[in-house]
Design a protein that fits this description.
This protein is mainly α. It has ten helices and no strands. 45% of the residues are buried.
Length: 246
């Protein structure tokens, strides 16, 4: 990677880390599309693997007191872990184009759900089959593109959990899927020295912004911040589509 590419990657991760520190999700969904404009999707996912895992572990630990209010975490995590391993193999073996399309669609789906404010609610009966299905879908997406927020985030939101239970749930699921992804990427030699070092360097802003995000959340208008994030996400996903078409 060139110096400019490294700077762009770290800037994208820093921006994504701020979003995540406030909302519990957003690090990969902001950082990976931006990085994918300048480097390959595979490189972006590999760089993101380590800082994403670290941030999710820390945030899940900070919200651990809400563990009794979570729902279906074991089944979601188990199916997500297995699917993330399979998804990571797709990242290595599939051509980049279909994965970029999946990435853009994932971002558009996240933006669409947020804009529509879909009032989803999951019944106890539906959870028995939805939880493993969502676990598999989220794990596959996490492994293949590094992004599972549109799937896990939407489903857990529909469970209507308390705020801290929501944070604990999504960050735990991201962390478990991230472990499966990291195992495959490391065992197949995807971590070059350069990508590994950039990933390690990205841990610094990720950790630093976790407490800062809590303070920003208390002071900044949630509506204004969400609108800014949606603009950035939409622009990044649109640029990826344009890149594919032209």
């Amino acid at each position: 990677m060139t110096g400019a590419e490294i700077a762009i990657a770290l800037a994208a991760i820093t921006g994504g880390a701020l979003v995540k520190s406030i909302s519990g999700l957003g690090l990969p969904i902001v950082a990976i599309p931006v990085m994918a404009l300048f480097i390959s999707l595979e490189e972006a996912v590999v760089i993101m693997a380590i800082p994403s895992l670290v941030s999710n572990v820390i945030m899940a630990f900070r919200a651990r007191a809400a563990r009794n209010a979570t729902v279906d975490i074991p089944i979601l995590a188990a199916t997500g872990l297995c699917a993330a391993i399979a998804g990571s193999a797709l990242l290595i073996w599939l051509p980049e184009e279909p994965l970029l399309i999946a990435l853009a669609l994932a971002v558009f789906a996240y933006v669409g759900v947020t804009l529509l404010h879909a009032d989803l609610h999951i019944s106890d009966t539906s959870r028995s089959w939805l939880s493993p299905t969502v676990g598999v879908a989220g794990g596959l997406m996490h492994g293949a593109t590094g992004i599972s927020g549109p799937i896990y985030g939407t489903y857990v939101h529909a469970l209507r959990l308390p705020q801290e239970a929501y944070i604990l749930s999504v960050t735990s699921l991201f962390a478990i899927a991230g472990i499966g992804q990291l195992l495959v990427l490391s065992s197949t030699g995807q971590f070059t020295t350069g990508l590994f070092l950039v990933g390690l360097a990205a841990i610094v802003p990720v950790i630093a912004l976790i407490p800062l995000g809590a303070r920003v959340r208390d002071r900044m208008s949630g509506e204004r911040f969400n609108r800014l994030v949606l603009v950035v996400l939409t622009a990044a996903a649109t640029t990826i589509v344009v890149r594919l078409v032209f």
